Amino acid sequence: MCSTPETRRPSHDSVLKMTTTWGARLALLALVVLLAAALSFAGGKKHKLSKDLDGLKGSNSGSRVDVIIQFNHAPTDGHHQKVQRKGGLLKSKMDLIKGALYSVPVGSLDALADDADVAYISPNRPLSGTSTSTLDYAAESVNAPVAWHQGLDGTGVGVAVIDSGVTAVGDLYWWIPANQTYGSRVVYSQNFVPDAADASDQYGHGTHVAGIIAGAGWFSTGSTFNHTFKGMAPNANIINLRVLDQNGVGTDSSVIAAIQTAISLKSTYNIRVINLSLGRQVYESYTLDPLCQAVEAAWNSGIVVLAAAGNQGRNNSVGTEGYGTISAPGNDPYVITVGAMKTANTVTRVDDTIASYSSKGPTAFDHVAKPDIVAPGNQVVSTLAPNAPLLSTPTDVYLSEYSTFTTTTNKKDKKNSTTSLTANAISTSYLRLSGTSMATPAVSGAAALLVQQNPNLTPDQIKARLMKTASKDFPANSTVTDPTITTTFSPLAPATWILPRRSPTTIWPMLRRRLRPRSLTPQHRAFP
Q1: pTM of the model
Q2: Which member of 310, 344, 388, 414 has the lowest number of beta carbons within 10 Å of its beta carbon?
Q3: In angstroms, rounded to a whole number, what is the distance separating the alpha carbons of residues 458 and 450?
Q4: Which pLDDT tens digit goes with each residue over 152-199?
């Protein structure tokens, strides 16, 4: 999930100050809870039809709609035949969630819901990983080099990137200089986008995400470069499962199918991490949402799932100042939900703040405290998929930002010396994006390093270590003024409102457990 980048501005363009008393905090939290509760219990009873399907019943009963039907037990041929007798057409099985995708007549929805074997029916909802457009210090700001120096680089760990596809650019290759051998670390690719020819990245989002996880920085390494753009686990393997089209849009069914594939390939490629830098609106409790049921199945299979919190932190459409805007499947308590922070383009953490666009909890319907953790997500530089639509002026990275100027001199005429790099030369290897989509793979990379360090860790243990040992140094609250629209936003630490001693956290000190075990204390679509 990506959002409009937040840039450092002179002091007259931004306002950082303490706001909001605890009384106001509690009042707003109560408002969010009441609003969500009202939505949860409207109608006075639990319905098997999701509310967005309920709204279709008054339309033309002859029209059809793609739905995901979850059953109480794994559906058999008999269940599929019952749906077919009501005019349904089986499109794909979803054994992972004890369900299937069907095309059914709108007029048959009530009859399908009356079936005692049916648990819940929801539409095949769209989701996306849309993006919009200094030097990037994401890895340095979370102390990634500390892990690299200890030999932790993700070797042998597979990370499934469920996104717009991954193009195997140079930074996603392994290379042994001694014997000049090399090969792609994108070890498996599969497409789940209908009518798409292959699993290559036709949008640019997935390749950027993969670079944050596992980019090796080959194209920014050497004597002529002053900054190297490496991923958090620069030798991890990428399993490319494409679910978003050339516009960054996909569906629940595609994501569920990709998750099921990741589970089936877990042993083959040692898939221990799934990265979901995508999402959509929450329509019901996570206990009913088919997308949430799929991520829980992956978690229960031993794969840690990272999901973007969403970029609706500035959304005040219902008067909640962006609270209650966590997207699905990040609303599921099992997954690690990641919010975005700003590094201010420095290695130090003293000037880090929460990005105001980063979505805040509690989650709709279930009121779960989210996000679980935050990581660098603003103006992150990572790998570029050639000719992808996301390559445009707001996202451009200039060679001069990370490469030194070198001079070539004509020995016969020293006056005609020229520079090999011009100030406005655009990088063909990297682009810059912002959002919780960029923060999520940073934590996915951290999870991969934890798995490499201790392969026996469970998803629950990985989540606990990440949250417990991360930095807690963010200001409790702050405000930032957008200089373009002259509006002030409050990117307050979301979880602080509910659990004051467990504020959102930056990643990485968990790796110091190995270095300094006594230094730790028991503290604890992308929407535009």
Answers
A1: 0.79
A2: 414
A3: 10
A4: 899 999 999 999 999 999 999 998 888 888 899 999 999 999 999 999
